[in-house]
Amino acid sequence: MDEREWLKAQLKEIEKWEKDQQKVWFWEKLSRLPFQMLDKLTPAFIQKKIGVLLDEMGNYIQSGGVYLTSEKGIIHQFQKKCADESIQRIEDIEKAPINIMDAISEQMGKNRTNLATVQGATTGVGGMFTLAADIPAVLGLSLKTLQDIAVTYGYDPKNKEERVFIIKCLQLNSADVVGKKSILKELKSYHASEGKHENMISQIQGWREVVYNYRDSFGWKKLFQLVPIAGILFGAASNRSQLKGIAETGMMQYRKRRILTRLEELTQQEQSESGS
C-alpha cells in the first residue's frame, strides 16, 4: 500500500477510537455517585495525600517532577529494531518507521500494566490505609508511562508543551463523556499549532479537578479495595485497567500526531518535487 494511503488508514482507526471514547455507559454514571459520599467520609490523612498530589502535578508541569523517562533504554530498543546505531537522540527517533514505534509502545504498555497489577495487589492488602499509598504510586507510574510513549514517537517530554500534552492525556483517560469531548477537541488543535503552545497551560482547569477526576476514575473497584484482603483482587484489577487505559490513550494520541506530521512531510516533498 502507498505510504500516504497507509497513513490515512491508520488515522481513520485512531479517529474511530476517539469516537468510541465519547460514548458513556450507564455504569460509568453510577460509578461517580459513591465518591460524593466518599469525600465526606475520607479520613484527613488521605485528603492530605490528595493535596500532595496537587503539588506534584504543578511541579510536573513546571519542571518535569521526579518522573524520569527511560530515554536511553528506548533509544537502545530503536537501535536494535532498526539495526541503526546512528539513533542517539530523541530527534533521531522521529524518522523511524511508525510500525516500530507502535511495537515498542505496545510492549511498554503491557509491561507497565503488569507492574501496576502487582502494585495494586500489594497495596490492596491493607484497605483504606494502603490506598493512600496506591494513588500517588499509580499517578507516578502513569506519568512515567506517558513520558516514555512520548519518546517512543519522537517527542521530548522535557519540553513543557509535551508535559502539558501528557497531562491532557491523563485527563482524557479519566474524564467523563463531556470532558472527553472537550479534551479531544483541544488535543486535535494541538497538532495544528505545533510549537506554539503558550496558551495550553490556561486550558488546564486547575490541578484539583485533574486529581479528583483521576481518583474518581477508579470507580467501584477502588471502593472494594477499601476492604482489607479483598482489596488485593480489586486493587490489582483496578490498577491494571487504569494503566491499560493510560497506555492506550497515550499511544493513540502520540501516534496520531506522528501520522499527521508524516502526511504533512509527504505533501511538502511532493510539492518540492513538482516545483523542481
Query: Which residues sit in consecutive blocks of at least 5 with pLDDT less than 50?
Result: 195-203
Instruction: State which percent range the strand residues make up.
Output: under 5%
Q: Specify the overall morphology.
A: globular
Mean pLDDT: 77
What is the helical fraction, as a range of percent?
A: over 70%
Oligomer: single chain
- N→C terminal distance: 26 Å
What is the radius of gyration computed over CA atoms, rounded to a whole number of angstroms?
Answer: 20 Å
- Find the count of extended strands (DSSP E, 2+ residues): 0
Task: Please describe the biggest sheet, giving its number of strands, its sense, and whether it closes into a barrel.
Answer: none
Pairing-aware structural class of the strands and helices? Answer: mainly alpha
Order of SSEs, N→C? HHHHHHHHHHHH
Individual helix count: 12
Protein model, in words:
The two termini are 26 Å apart. The chain is mostly helical and 276 residues long. The protein has 12 helices and no strands. It is 78% helix and 0% strand. The longest helix is centred in the C-terminal third of the chain and has 45 residues, at 231-275.
